[in-house]
Amino acid sequence: MTDSRPVTAAWASCLGIIAIVFGILLVAAHGNELLKQVVITADSAAAYDLPLRCPVDELTEEGISLAECEMMGANVKSMIISRPDWFRTFQIGLMTVGTIVAFGSIFVGIALVDYRNWAPKAAIISFSALAAIDIIGFIAVVNTGPLMRQLYLWEIFLWITIHLMMSAGAFAGRRSKSIEAPLAG
Length: 185
Prior knowledge:
Blueprint: H1 9-39, H2 56-62, H3 66-82, H4 85-113, H5 119-142, H6 146-184
Helix pairs in contact: 1-4, 1-6, 4-5, 5-6
């Protein structure tokens, strides 16, 4: 009994495992950002300078101090005040698309691990699309204020680096497959 998988399946399996792990992490990250943008609106209580409610029983239940509760309220207010009017709608759209593409990259990762012939090309498309989404997000965040840049830029740079490296890995793996084919024959 011989294994019918090509030698190139090793690189694809490694890249596929990485794609699955990062895909799950990115779905969670984009989902959290999407939820944050949906929940924190300009008509939230924090925007109206209403006194912050931090009942002692809830603080105890959550295991946080009064200072931590006040800091969370300040973070919400900071987000509302420093976020440009266009940013919330833009982020909701970008995070929705990003979540869908990230979810798809999980399936591309599975296809790489199981080495399907179409998987390397799908990986290039998927990882490049995620890098493009990151770059679009970077451009948007750069056009906001300093508080928003402080909040978002480090994470965006991290994801840009990850997605560019994964794209390069998919390109290199696909290239090695096309180079090895004539040598095997």
